[in-house]
Amino acid sequence: MKFPRTYPLSEIAEIISAKYVGDDSFPVTGMNEIHVVTSGDIVFVDHPKYYDKALESAATIVLINKEVDCPEGKALLISDDPFRDFNKLTNFFNPFSAFAKAESPISMGENTHIHPSAVIGKDVEIGSNTIIHANVSIGDRCIVGNNVIINSGAVLGGDAFYYKRRPEGYDKLLSGGRVVIEDHVEIGCNATIDRGVTGDTRIGYGSKLDNQVQIGHDTVLGKHVLIASQTGIAGCVIVKDEVTIWGQVGITSGITIGEKAIISAKSGVSKSLEGNKHYFGIPADDFRSKYKEIAAIKRIPEVLELLKNTNK
Protein backbone atom coordinates (compact mmCIF):
# COMPACT_ATOMS: atom_id res chain seq x y z
CA MET A 1 0.00 0.00 0.00
CA LYS A 2 1.44 3.35 -1.05
CA PHE A 3 0.45 6.48 0.86
CA PRO A 4 -1.11 9.47 -0.94
CA ARG A 5 2.06 11.46 -0.28
CA THR A 6 5.46 11.04 1.32
CA TYR A 7 5.27 11.36 5.10
CA PRO A 8 8.14 12.25 7.45
CA LEU A 9 9.04 9.59 10.00
CA SER A 10 8.06 11.88 12.88
CA GLU A 11 4.49 12.19 11.57
CA ILE A 12 4.09 8.42 11.19
CA ALA A 13 5.43 7.96 14.73
CA GLU A 14 2.88 10.44 16.02
CA ILE A 15 -0.01 8.53 14.40
CA ILE A 16 0.85 5.38 16.37
CA SER A 17 2.42 7.09 19.43
CA ALA A 18 5.73 5.30 18.89
CA LYS A 19 9.34 6.21 19.52
CA TYR A 20 11.57 6.26 16.48
CA VAL A 21 15.21 5.97 15.48
CA GLY A 22 16.17 8.07 12.50
CA ASP A 23 15.94 11.59 11.18
CA ASP A 24 12.63 13.41 11.78
CA SER A 25 12.21 13.91 8.04
CA PHE A 26 13.15 10.36 7.00
CA PRO A 27 10.78 9.64 4.05
CA VAL A 28 7.96 7.10 4.43
CA THR A 29 6.00 6.31 1.28
CA GLY A 30 3.98 3.21 2.16
CA MET A 31 3.59 0.00 4.16
CA ASN A 32 3.68 -3.62 3.11
CA GLU A 33 4.22 -7.22 4.13
CA ILE A 34 7.77 -8.44 4.01
CA HIS A 35 7.46 -10.39 0.73
CA VAL A 36 6.43 -7.28 -1.25
CA VAL A 37 8.21 -4.39 0.51
CA THR A 38 10.18 -1.79 -1.42
CA SER A 39 12.25 1.22 -0.42
CA GLY A 40 10.16 3.71 1.55
CA ASP A 41 7.87 1.03 2.99
CA ILE A 42 7.16 0.16 6.61
CA VAL A 43 7.35 -3.52 7.54
CA PHE A 44 6.40 -4.85 10.97
CA VAL A 45 8.08 -7.57 13.01
CA ASP A 46 7.20 -8.75 16.51
CA HIS A 47 9.20 -11.97 16.98
CA PRO A 48 12.99 -12.33 17.45
CA LYS A 49 13.01 -15.18 14.94
CA TYR A 50 12.21 -12.70 12.16
CA TYR A 51 14.15 -9.61 13.31
CA ASP A 52 17.06 -10.13 10.91
CA LYS A 53 14.77 -10.87 7.97
CA ALA A 54 12.85 -7.63 8.53
CA LEU A 55 15.94 -5.51 9.20
CA GLU A 56 17.66 -6.86 6.08
CA SER A 57 14.59 -6.58 3.85
CA ALA A 58 13.99 -3.96 1.17
CA ALA A 59 11.82 -2.00 3.61
CA THR A 60 13.54 1.12 4.89
CA ILE A 61 11.35 1.57 7.98
CA VAL A 62 11.01 -1.31 10.45
CA LEU A 63 8.19 -1.31 13.02
CA ILE A 64 9.68 -3.45 15.78
CA ASN A 65 9.07 -4.31 19.43
CA LYS A 66 12.68 -4.01 20.58
CA GLU A 67 15.35 -1.34 20.41
CA VAL A 68 18.05 -2.73 18.14
CA ASP A 69 20.91 -1.28 16.12
CA CYS A 70 19.43 0.53 13.16
CA PRO A 71 20.89 -0.56 9.81
CA GLU A 72 22.47 2.18 7.71
CA GLY A 73 20.00 3.93 5.44
CA LYS A 74 16.99 2.78 7.46
CA ALA A 75 14.81 3.97 10.33
CA LEU A 76 13.01 2.22 13.19
CA LEU A 77 9.62 2.68 14.80
CA ILE A 78 9.73 1.23 18.32
CA SER A 79 6.40 -0.18 19.53
CA ASP A 80 5.29 -2.45 22.35
CA ASP A 81 2.86 -4.06 19.87
CA PRO A 82 3.83 -3.77 16.18
CA PHE A 83 0.85 -5.89 15.05
CA ARG A 84 -1.58 -3.46 16.71
CA ASP A 85 0.20 -0.42 15.32
CA PHE A 86 0.38 -1.85 11.80
CA ASN A 87 -3.41 -2.15 12.02
CA LYS A 88 -3.61 1.46 13.21
CA LEU A 89 -1.73 2.60 10.13
CA THR A 90 -3.91 0.50 7.83
CA ASN A 91 -7.02 2.00 9.40
CA PHE A 92 -5.59 5.52 9.18
CA PHE A 93 -4.65 5.38 5.51
CA ASN A 94 -7.34 3.01 4.31
CA PRO A 95 -10.29 3.11 6.73
CA PHE A 96 -13.09 0.59 6.55
CA SER A 97 -16.16 1.77 4.67
CA ALA A 98 -19.68 0.62 5.50
CA PHE A 99 -21.44 -2.05 3.49
CA ALA A 100 -22.88 -0.06 0.62
CA LYS A 101 -22.74 0.11 -3.13
CA ALA A 102 -20.46 2.60 -4.78
CA GLU A 103 -21.47 6.16 -3.95
CA SER A 104 -20.29 7.42 -7.33
CA PRO A 105 -20.72 5.93 -10.83
CA ILE A 106 -18.63 2.81 -11.41
CA SER A 107 -15.60 3.19 -13.67
CA MET A 108 -16.67 0.80 -16.41
CA GLY A 109 -15.65 0.17 -20.01
CA GLU A 110 -17.84 -0.29 -23.06
CA ASN A 111 -20.10 -3.30 -23.58
CA THR A 112 -19.75 -4.47 -19.98
CA HIS A 113 -22.80 -6.05 -18.32
CA ILE A 114 -23.38 -6.18 -14.57
CA HIS A 115 -26.35 -8.06 -13.12
CA PRO A 116 -28.58 -5.85 -10.93
CA SER A 117 -28.01 -8.14 -7.92
CA ALA A 118 -24.23 -7.74 -8.01
CA VAL A 119 -22.71 -5.57 -5.28
CA ILE A 120 -19.85 -3.33 -6.35
CA GLY A 121 -17.80 -1.46 -3.74
CA LYS A 122 -16.18 1.96 -3.86
CA ASP A 123 -13.47 2.93 -6.32
CA VAL A 124 -13.82 -0.28 -8.31
CA GLU A 125 -12.57 -0.26 -11.92
CA ILE A 126 -14.11 -2.60 -14.50
CA GLY A 127 -12.90 -2.92 -18.10
CA SER A 128 -14.70 -3.46 -21.40
CA ASN A 129 -16.60 -6.52 -22.66
CA THR A 130 -16.82 -7.94 -19.16
CA ILE A 131 -19.77 -9.89 -17.74
CA ILE A 132 -20.57 -9.94 -14.02
CA HIS A 133 -23.33 -12.40 -13.16
CA ALA A 134 -25.90 -12.50 -10.35
CA ASN A 135 -24.95 -12.11 -6.68
CA VAL A 136 -21.30 -11.35 -7.33
CA SER A 137 -19.61 -9.21 -4.66
CA ILE A 138 -16.63 -7.01 -5.57
CA GLY A 139 -14.98 -5.16 -2.69
CA ASP A 140 -13.60 -1.64 -2.56
CA ARG A 141 -10.75 -0.63 -4.90
CA CYS A 142 -10.69 -3.94 -6.78
CA ILE A 143 -9.76 -3.88 -10.46
CA VAL A 144 -11.38 -6.10 -13.10
CA GLY A 145 -9.91 -6.11 -16.60
CA ASN A 146 -11.31 -6.51 -20.11
CA ASN A 147 -13.12 -9.59 -21.43
CA VAL A 148 -13.55 -11.03 -17.94
CA ILE A 149 -16.40 -13.34 -16.87
CA ILE A 150 -17.28 -13.52 -13.17
CA ASN A 151 -19.92 -16.16 -12.50
CA SER A 152 -22.69 -16.12 -9.93
CA GLY A 153 -21.86 -15.94 -6.24
CA ALA A 154 -18.16 -15.16 -6.61
CA VAL A 155 -16.62 -12.87 -3.99
CA LEU A 156 -13.65 -10.67 -4.85
CA GLY A 157 -12.01 -8.72 -2.07
CA GLY A 158 -12.86 -10.60 1.10
CA ASP A 159 -10.57 -10.02 4.08
CA ALA A 160 -7.33 -11.95 4.50
CA PHE A 161 -7.35 -14.94 6.83
CA TYR A 162 -4.56 -13.54 9.00
CA TYR A 163 -4.65 -13.52 12.82
CA LYS A 164 -2.35 -13.14 15.79
CA ARG A 165 -2.98 -15.39 18.78
CA ARG A 166 -3.40 -13.45 22.02
CA PRO A 167 -4.35 -14.68 25.52
CA GLU A 168 -7.92 -13.48 25.02
CA GLY A 169 -8.28 -14.94 21.50
CA TYR A 170 -7.38 -14.13 17.91
CA ASP A 171 -6.58 -10.58 16.78
CA LYS A 172 -7.32 -9.83 13.12
CA LEU A 173 -4.79 -8.16 10.84
CA LEU A 174 -6.73 -5.59 8.85
CA SER A 175 -6.82 -5.95 5.07
CA GLY A 176 -6.15 -2.79 3.09
CA GLY A 177 -5.07 -4.30 -0.23
CA ARG A 178 -6.87 -5.11 -3.47
CA VAL A 179 -7.80 -7.86 -5.88
CA VAL A 180 -6.63 -7.33 -9.46
CA ILE A 181 -8.16 -9.44 -12.23
CA GLU A 182 -6.28 -9.16 -15.51
CA ASP A 183 -7.80 -9.48 -19.00
CA HIS A 184 -9.50 -12.63 -20.36
CA VAL A 185 -9.94 -14.25 -16.93
CA GLU A 186 -12.96 -16.37 -16.00
CA ILE A 187 -13.93 -16.93 -12.36
CA GLY A 188 -16.35 -19.73 -11.47
CA CYS A 189 -19.47 -19.76 -9.33
CA ASN A 190 -18.88 -19.21 -5.60
CA ALA A 191 -15.14 -18.76 -6.03
CA THR A 192 -13.55 -16.52 -3.38
CA ILE A 193 -10.49 -14.34 -3.82
CA ASP A 194 -9.18 -12.52 -0.73
CA ARG A 195 -7.72 -9.05 -1.00
CA GLY A 196 -4.08 -8.44 -0.15
CA VAL A 197 -3.21 -7.32 3.36
CA THR A 198 -1.45 -4.25 1.99
CA GLY A 199 -0.68 -5.28 -1.60
CA ASP A 200 -2.56 -7.01 -4.41
CA THR A 201 -3.93 -10.49 -4.89
CA ARG A 202 -3.58 -10.92 -8.65
CA ILE A 203 -5.15 -13.29 -11.16
CA GLY A 204 -3.04 -13.26 -14.33
CA TYR A 205 -4.02 -12.83 -17.96
CA GLY A 206 -6.13 -15.62 -19.43
CA SER A 207 -6.36 -17.66 -16.22
CA LYS A 208 -9.47 -19.76 -15.55
CA LEU A 209 -10.83 -20.62 -12.09
CA ASP A 210 -13.52 -23.27 -11.63
CA ASN A 211 -16.39 -23.14 -9.13
CA GLN A 212 -15.60 -23.01 -5.40
CA VAL A 213 -11.93 -22.15 -5.75
CA GLN A 214 -10.34 -20.23 -2.84
CA ILE A 215 -7.39 -17.87 -3.42
CA GLY A 216 -5.69 -16.48 -0.31
CA HIS A 217 -4.39 -12.97 0.32
CA ASP A 218 -1.45 -11.63 -1.70
CA THR A 219 -1.30 -14.73 -3.87
CA VAL A 220 -0.25 -14.05 -7.47
CA LEU A 221 -1.30 -16.25 -10.38
CA GLY A 222 0.61 -15.95 -13.66
CA LYS A 223 -0.79 -16.13 -17.18
CA HIS A 224 -3.07 -18.95 -18.37
CA VAL A 225 -3.27 -20.73 -15.02
CA LEU A 226 -6.02 -23.37 -14.88
CA ILE A 227 -7.52 -24.28 -11.47
CA ALA A 228 -10.26 -26.90 -10.99
CA SER A 229 -13.04 -26.96 -8.42
CA GLN A 230 -12.55 -26.93 -4.63
CA THR A 231 -8.86 -26.11 -4.77
CA GLY A 232 -7.66 -23.98 -1.86
CA ILE A 233 -4.55 -21.82 -2.17
CA ALA A 234 -3.24 -20.09 0.95
CA GLY A 235 -1.80 -16.57 1.15
CA CYS A 236 1.41 -15.28 -0.43
CA VAL A 237 1.72 -18.09 -2.99
CA ILE A 238 3.24 -17.48 -6.43
CA VAL A 239 1.79 -19.65 -9.19
CA LYS A 240 3.73 -19.12 -12.40
CA ASP A 241 2.49 -19.18 -16.00
CA GLU A 242 0.54 -22.09 -17.46
CA VAL A 243 0.27 -24.11 -14.25
CA THR A 244 -2.60 -26.61 -14.10
CA ILE A 245 -4.11 -27.46 -10.69
CA TRP A 246 -6.83 -30.12 -10.59
CA GLY A 247 -9.68 -30.50 -8.09
CA GLN A 248 -9.39 -30.41 -4.30
CA VAL A 249 -5.71 -29.56 -4.22
CA GLY A 250 -4.53 -27.82 -1.04
CA ILE A 251 -1.53 -25.46 -1.21
CA THR A 252 0.26 -24.04 1.83
CA SER A 253 1.32 -20.40 2.18
CA GLY A 254 4.46 -18.67 0.98
CA ILE A 255 5.61 -21.12 -1.69
CA THR A 256 6.15 -20.98 -5.46
CA ILE A 257 4.72 -23.33 -8.10
CA GLY A 258 6.97 -23.36 -11.16
CA GLU A 259 5.90 -22.66 -14.73
CA LYS A 260 3.85 -25.37 -16.51
CA ALA A 261 3.69 -27.61 -13.45
CA ILE A 262 0.68 -29.93 -13.24
CA ILE A 263 -0.76 -30.92 -9.86
CA SER A 264 -3.19 -33.83 -9.83
CA ALA A 265 -6.46 -33.91 -7.87
CA LYS A 266 -6.49 -34.20 -4.07
CA SER A 267 -2.77 -33.45 -3.75
CA GLY A 268 -1.39 -31.60 -0.73
CA VAL A 269 1.40 -29.14 -1.58
CA SER A 270 3.62 -28.29 1.38
CA LYS A 271 6.73 -26.91 -0.36
CA SER A 272 7.74 -25.09 -3.54
CA LEU A 273 7.55 -27.18 -6.71
CA GLU A 274 9.72 -26.98 -9.83
CA GLY A 275 8.13 -26.20 -13.16
CA ASN A 276 7.55 -28.57 -16.10
CA LYS A 277 6.81 -31.55 -13.85
CA HIS A 278 3.68 -33.51 -12.93
CA TYR A 279 2.91 -33.92 -9.22
CA PHE A 280 0.47 -35.85 -7.07
CA GLY A 281 -0.01 -37.18 -3.55
CA ILE A 282 0.27 -35.95 0.04
CA PRO A 283 2.78 -34.46 0.31
CA ALA A 284 2.87 -33.79 -3.42
CA ASP A 285 5.89 -35.10 -5.29
CA ASP A 286 6.69 -35.73 -8.93
CA PHE A 287 5.10 -38.79 -10.55
CA ARG A 288 8.32 -40.80 -10.89
CA SER A 289 9.25 -40.45 -7.21
CA LYS A 290 5.69 -41.06 -6.06
CA TYR A 291 5.25 -44.24 -8.12
CA LYS A 292 8.55 -45.59 -6.78
CA GLU A 293 7.29 -44.84 -3.27
CA ILE A 294 3.99 -46.61 -3.95
CA ALA A 295 5.81 -49.59 -5.46
CA ALA A 296 8.03 -49.81 -2.38
CA ILE A 297 5.01 -49.69 -0.06
CA LYS A 298 3.33 -52.51 -1.99
CA ARG A 299 6.42 -54.67 -1.40
CA ILE A 300 6.26 -54.32 2.41
CA PRO A 301 4.23 -57.56 2.90
CA GLU A 302 6.69 -59.43 0.68
CA VAL A 303 9.66 -58.06 2.64
CA LEU A 304 8.00 -58.94 5.97
CA GLU A 305 7.37 -62.46 4.75
CA LEU A 306 11.02 -62.82 3.68
CA LEU A 307 12.18 -61.59 7.10
CA LYS A 308 9.80 -64.00 8.80
CA ASN A 309 11.15 -66.94 6.79
CA THR A 310 14.75 -65.84 7.37
CA ASN A 311 14.26 -65.83 11.16
CA LYS A 312 12.82 -69.36 11.25
By secondary-structure content and strand pairing, the structural class works out as alpha/beta
Number of E-type strands: 34
User: Roughly how much helix do the residues carry, as a percent range?
Assistant: 10-25%
- CATH class type of the largest domain: Mainly Beta
Please tell me what the overall shape is.
flat
Alpha carbon gyration radius: 23 Å
Describe the structure.
By secondary structure, the protein is α/β, with parallel strands linked by helices. It has two domains: 2-93, MurE/MurF, N-terminal domain (Udp-n-acetylmuramoylalanyl-d-glutamate--2,6- Diaminopimelate Ligase, Chain: A, domain 1), CATH 3.40.1390; 107-290, 3 Solenoid (UDP N-Acetylglucosamine Acyltransferase, domain 1), CATH 2.160.10.10. Helices cover 15% and strands 31% of the residues. The strands form five sheets. It has a ten-stranded mixed sheet with strand order 8-11-14-19-22-25-28-31-33-34. It has an eight-stranded parallel sheet with strand order 7-10-13-18-21-24-27-30, with no helix packed on it. The longest helix is centred in the N-terminal third of the chain and has 12 residues, at 82-93. It is flat and about 80 Å long.
